[in-house]
Amino acid sequence: MRPGGRPCYAFHTCGVSLRASCCDEMGAAVIRAIRNFNLENRAEREISKMKPSPAPRHPSTKSLLREQTSSHPHIKGEIDRKDDKLLSLLKDVYVDSKDPVSSVQVKDAGIPQEAKEFRLPKGHHFDLNIENIPKGKISIVEALALLNNHKLYPDTWTAKKIAEEYHLEQKDVHALLKYFVTFEVKVFPPEGKKAIQSE
Predict the structure, then answer these.
(1) Radius of gyration of the chain (CA)
(2) Where are the beta strands (DSSP E) in 31-146?
(3) Burial letters for 51-66: b for 16+ Cβ neighbours within 10 Å, e otherwise?
(4) Helices (H) and strands (E) in the chain, counts
(5) What share of the chain is helix, strand, coil (3-state, %, to 5)?
(6) Rounded distance between C-alpha atoms, residue 50 and residue 28, angstroms
């Protein structure tokens, strides 16, 4: 139907009003005609194209093959012959395979996992959606805060206090303090100008 509700007689295949199924049939007919256009010539062209030749054999392989076929001429016939017995056996083969269950999944299923303990995050997390942190772990914000606290007040924020405060192993805290530092920004004045002393 046209937008005004009048029947459409643009297509003569559909004597009544235009229906979706009628248009689908016409569209399919058009697509089929385009797909089958010049089909025989296109098929002939594809068939007559040069087939890719196999990779050339190494000269030593060529000579060995020539030698074997000349000394054993029946081998060539054996290679080209189809073995009906093997073909019938191949038809009887039915392969039904399933992926094996990995050993990791089996181990996990057998051992009940211990419940993880969580703690609330410390400090300001700048509206990050961190609700709880597993014990023995820290967030990036907490890591930066504890490194900065240790740098500013090393007597107060010792490795032992940090380990107790954040529920960490003391050896991990020692490694953290030894190998990680926070950035320190230093601005060097251009030569000839005096540096402004910070108060």
Answers:
(1) 40
(2) 118-119, 133-134
(3) eeeeeeeeeeeeeeee
(4) 9, 2
(5) 50, 0, 50
(6) 34
Tokens, residue 49? 């194209």
Q: Which amino acid is at 11?
A: F
Instruction: Give the type of residue at 131.
Output: E
Q: Quick one: CA dihedral 22, 25, 28, 33, positive or negative?
A: negative
DSSP string for residues in 97-157: --PPPPHHHHHHHHSPPPPPPEEPPPS--TT-----EETT---HHHHHHHHHHHHH-TTTS
CB 116 within 8 A of CB 132: no
Query: In b/e form, how buried is each residue of 111-134, taking b as 16+ CB within 10 angstroms?
Result: eeeeeeeeeebeeeeeeeeeeebe
Q: Which of 160, 158, 120 is nearest to 142 (CA)?
A: 120
- Average pLDDT by consecutive 10-residue portion of the chain (199 residues)? 50 50 73 83 86 82 85 82 87 81 59 59 59 80 87 91 90 91 78 65
CA distances from 57 to 54, 76, 150, 192 (A): 9, 17, 72, 77
Statement: the pTM of the whole predicted model exceeds 0.90: no
Provide the residue type at 4 as one letter: G
Please choose, from the candidates 118, 180, 109, 112, the residue with its C-alpha nearest in 3D space to the C-alpha of residue 143: 180
Reading the block at residue 119, the tokens are 């703690």
